[in-house]
Amino acid sequence: MRYALISDIHANQPALEAVLADIASRPDVGATYHLGDLVGYAPFPDQVVATLQRAAIAGVAGNYDSTVATGYKHCGCRYEDPQQEALSHLSYQWTLAHVSADTKRYLGGLPFRIDLRPLGGHAAGPTVILLHGNQVLNTVYVFEERPDEFLEKMADAAGAKRGDVICFGHTHKPWHRVVRGVHFVNTGSVGRPKDGDWRAGYVLLSVDQMAIAAEFVRVEYDLETVAQAILASELPDEFAAQLRTGG
Ligand SMILES: [Fe+2]
């Protein structure tokens, strides 16, 4: 079974369209799921949600999705400095004010976690767990630098056994590690990468009887359209610059 996992789209409609076209060109992909953070930072939140609904792509709630849906006081994001914090609040206020009632309802209905059984639930086999942050909160950042003990605790708390896969996003940086036989796959970000590569990122996860493989894919997209739309909106211009540099 081969899955396409897309995360942290963040209202970047051109990036989402490019990624979905890339997935559509791969006939071996059996299913596509999103790992949350559909909105925020760019001016196409309703379009992104409508596109996912049209394509019947299920997924989990990111911190941005659940805070916008509930009208929370902030997006639950982490800030490196006061300037970043101020920009982040502007993004959140803009998004709260601009998403439609339908979009809010859809975001509020997203599940926190989805478990997949690629080889069937009638027999023992790997479980693929889809989250946004970690198994307790969608605001927790699971960075690649986390020590083995952190990931072992995460696997135990999530109920993951040897051979299972835990997939998540939130940090906007892709990585794959195996700790005590459990795979940890961070999908990176479709619409707001922070690893220095401006291209949209997603993961192809392959699971069969013998092996688990994660392939990180990068796709060029129409960056100017979203950059110009950010500049033309009341969103901070800095968000366009961040997209150009890949964070
Ligand atoms: Fe995010």
Explain what the structure shows.
With 247 residues, the chain is of the alpha/beta class. It is built from eight helices and ten strands. It has helices spanning 13-24, 45-54, 63-70, 82-98, 101-108, 148-158, 223-232, 238-245, and strands spanning 2-6, 31-34, 58-59, 114-116, 128-130, 165-168, 175-179, 182-186, 200-207, 212-219. The strands form two sheets. Strands 3-2-1-9-10 form a five-stranded mixed β-sheet. It has a five-stranded mixed β-sheet with strand order 4-5-6-8-7, covered by helices on one side. Helix 3 crosses helix 5 and helix 7 (223-232) packs antiparallel against helix 8 (238-245). The longest helix is centred in the middle third of the chain and has 17 residues, at 82-98. It is globular, with a radius of gyration of 17 Å. It starts with a strand and ends with a helix. The mean pLDDT is 97. The protein binds fe (ii) ion (FE2).
List the helices and strands and how they pair.
Layout: E1 2-6, H1 13-24, E2 31-34, H2 45-54, E3 58-59, H3 63-70, H4 82-98, H5 101-108, E4 114-116, E5 128-130, H6 148-158, E6 165-168, E7 175-179, E8 182-186, E9 200-207, E10 212-219, H7 223-232, H8 238-245
Parallel strand pairs: 1-2, 2-3, 5-6, 6-8
Antiparallel strand pairs: 1-9, 4-5, 7-8, 9-10
This protein binds fe (ii) ion (FE2).
